Amino acid sequence: MSIRNLHHAIDPKSVVIVGASNRAGSLGRVIIENVLAAGFEGEIWPVNPKHDQVAGLYCYRRVADVPGVPDLAIIVTPPQTVPALIHELGTKGTRAAVVITAGLNAGQGLRQAMLDAAKPFLFRIIGPNTVGLIVPSAKLNASFAHLQPQPGGIALLSQSGAIATSLIDWAAENNVGFSKIISLGDMADADAGDFLDLLAGDSETRAIVMYLETIPNPRKFLSAARAAARVKPIIAIKAGRHVEGAKAAATHTGALSGADRVVDAALRRAGILRIDGLSELFDATETIARFPPLERSRVAIVTNGGGAGVLAVDRLIDFGCELAEFSPETDRALDRILPTNWSRANPVDIVGDAPPDRYRTTVEIVAQDAGVDILIVMNCPTGLASPLDAAHAVASLARSGTISGKPVLTCWLGGRTARDGRDVLQQAGLASYDTPFDVALAASYLARWSKAQRTLVRVPPSESGQVPRERGLVQSIFRKVAAEGRRMLNEPEAKAVIAAYGIPVPQTVIATSPKEAEAVAGSLLAGAAKVVVKLISKSVTHKSDVGGVVLDILTPVAAREAAEAIVARLKAHDPTAAVDGFAVQPMIERKHAWELLLGLTRDPIFGPVVLFGSGGVSVEVVADTAVALPPLDAVLAGDLIDQTRVGKLLAGFRNQPAADREAVRKALAALSQMIVDFPCVLSMDINPLVASAEGVIALDARIEIDLHAVDLPGPNRDLAIRPYPSDWEKQIALAGRLYHLRPIRPADAALYPDFLAKTSSTDIRFRFLSSRKHFRDQMLVRLTQVDYEREMAFVALDNESGALAGIARLYADPDHEVAEFGLLVRTDLQGHGLGWALLTHLRDYAAADGLQRIEGLVLSGNSKMLRMCREFGFGISPHPTDSTLRIAALPLQP
């Protein structure tokens, strides 16, 4: 991924329009008219061999004839001409183009030819098959949209041109402005991930909205989204929610983890708020852009109409929101100022005759309750009190859309009577909505977005110290199964694998015949009240489908008869099916226990997925499950549990004791660690995992592997989110100090201010190639949110104080061949070898990650850095276009 040269597209000083035309109704004419109508102030050069003039401008026959180097090209020519034009523009010095032309995907290799032409110049292409690009602040409308959007703070990325123009139309009607509008088209080169990276650092953009139909490069997209979502809200519509998944799957997990559920999980993990409809897009944006993320989202309601409050509560519960419970102090304070017939509950019904002072005092008291995170204030018109006066009373308490620091959402119901009140509230900076449904939906946006933001900063390690595991044993089992040409492990093998990752399983003994099953049952019944006999067969995926499980066996003879009956049922079901044996195990019976399903599967877009929910034989019918992208830590595993109905039941109710939630979380963490460690695992079911107050135990397990991947090392490269590379942590001792070298984490943003304060302005100028007095919070967040894939950073922390002492960074090119490096050591700690140690660590990581070369730009006056690079083995060469810079390059041994 790279944003290299994309700045030429969003802030061009000159534009060439290849295919500009005078022909009425042609794209070439609409494009140049839009460019001119928007008032673009740079050079505009039409190119078309059929015209001498276009729109009153001199028209050039070829790109080569244009008198200057265009920053941005807009191409509206037949598909077969595009590759040659890209080469011609690249030779000219242009580095970005909006390719409006469609049809490059229709065979003939035109798309690839276009990309091949662009590659030598690092030429960036938006499109093809795009409506275009609009930057209102730059007075640039390089599109065939029908309106000129007004400037604003929202950036729009749309994979559909029709949706983009529809939203432009809607925004014009509702006085919404844009910072950037980018129609992504076919995303042959620049895609949503690139523009998320670009917009994350765009000072004009305060929020990003997206319409997506596909996510072609999920790891790249999630990396960019996670970085951008830390600094500004992102709201997305992802179309195709009900595309039908696979009809059959080897595991329950495969059947239950539909593609759209995985998209939901991925967007949540990236800190993105997903919504369903276009009508919600800008409302959601306006709501969450007003407030920072919340730690919790408990909602309180103040209303003068009980019915309106109940409607809002119904909707809040529908949307999964949590109602606040007031403290005794709040209840007593409300008792003192409200009529005796107030509701004495949340919603707080202050009665229909509520005067302004009652509104003001009630809202003040409720907003100060520590158990309230979001406050909804409602008003119903009555003949007893003025909605306008009530609005003034509430508005008088407002500070930046909040009261007592709590986000406030208002709902003045009605039409003519409510309109003036809404105006007063909006002028005071308070969000205002027309109906109970709308205000409840807005509260749910804020709650869901806040939760997504909390998951965003989680960086589970690749080596979880909380998961005991015997990788060697698991590797040997997988190799044995692969050597036999099998994809599915039998039950004893699968149980041995999960037991090696710390998930408890019952004792299981394999019997090769009904007679042997009788003998095994005899020995097991010496220590157990009952046994279970299960079929082992390579021909059968789900044993219960063929009557392959018999429970409640009390005697050895009954065990033999159960095995014989299993054989008979299997042969009746499929005469060709083979019986490989029987698994005999003690019958596990626990009172007040829940049957759970834990699973792993592969999504065709996002790769490995973890599933959790209700288990048992009716798992597909009950369908109470949730999915998440690995890797998981304890917090993320807990969030996954909480998304299900059974997760709430595990907490206990009435006489049902709570199950051991920590044991369930550990089992989920074990599955997550397994898929990190073993790329060969294709799917897995643990069903049921019995959970009770005594802990958990897996009664059955099923694992499918890729025979050709059993020797691939971890961490798994198929994970959409790369785990925190904890194996790259180390301790070093230098000049009497101990330092901890480790990959950077999002929380390290808090260490930067002190580090920068102790770093000289000269050292900062040498590192960033320009003088900097201030580093915005957004920049510090961006520096610490890395994906450990295209970008890596190592920090050196003083062991004693925990202070940041130095940072080394790599940023790989899109082909993952060459990476740019940067290095900065705190000024007072230089000269003791810390920079050398960081650079060595960076080089070793780059080589292990498969990079061929690392290189960096060094100011010619930075003699210390140039000397260290030479001693380290870097080659130093002059920069081809900037005499103040040197290029330090180090080839890496394969």
TrEMBL record:
Keywords: ATP-binding, Ligase, Nucleotide-binding, Transferase, Tricarboxylic acid cycle. One of its GO terms (molecular function) is acetate-CoA ligase (ADP-forming) activity. Residues 739-894 form the N-acetyltransferase domain. It comes from the Bacteria. One of its GO terms (biological process) is tricarboxylic acid cycle. Signal peptide: none annotated. Pfam families: Acetyltransf_1, ATP-grasp_5, CoA_binding_2, Ligase_CoA_2, Succ_CoA_lig. This is Acetyltransferase. It comes from Sinorhizobium saheli.
